[in-house]
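Chapter review: from sequence to fold.
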Amino acid sequence: MRNPVIEVAVGSDIGRRYSANFDVTYLRAEPLLAVVADGMGDGPGSAAAGRTAVDIFVDYLTRELEPGPDTFRAAVAAADARVAQIGRELRSLAGCTLTAIVATPHCHWLVQIGDSRAYRLRGGLLELLTTDHTMAWLGAVHGWYPFDSAQAASARYHLTRYVGVGGVEPDVLSVTMRRGDRYLLCSDGVSEQVTYDDLRTFLLRDEPPQSVVANLLTTCDKAGGNDNATAIVIRVD
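The token string follows.
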């Protein structure tokens, strides 16, 4: 089977709320390795967590000829342990999300922990492939409170799983890429400021990934720039 031709682009914007950007990315087109991490809070632990998690995750994968689920879990476990140690050393919160798509010789894998997201546009349908590891997600699924309530808004900041909490495992899913697919990896600064309809509209356009990323970040700024906003767009042709 021939490998798909993949175009990729990445972009990030600091927004207007924070004095620094606590989102961290890594992007390699061939073989595909795309990672988005979002630090929790705005302190030194946040900055260290994202950078540390991405560096450790990428290092594990680049050392393996055929990485697989066991590799992904080991990489996240190593990052989790190191970030937790940083938190103890700083005596403050150190944690981050991590969402990644990884190409292997036989398929692509999606790795998820936290509330950054991965979307797929296929046949005109935009689907959310990941689950938010938050109390808000649990509350929405189980009907604990209205989705647009004050309780739900507060629960979005209560992560149930993240790198640095200690002893966690990521979700690991196999993904089959098809011609015409569009994938979006993003921090919550994008998913909370760009509507589903706008996400779908931007990904549907026959534009290079860099243009799609630029449109997403511009929309985040127009929505108020309330958070660091980061996006990786993958186009399969």
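Two observations follow directly from the output. The chain is about 35% helix and 25% strand. Strands lie at 6-13, 23-28, 33-38, 98-103, 108-113, 117-122, 125-128, 171-175, 182-186, 229-236.
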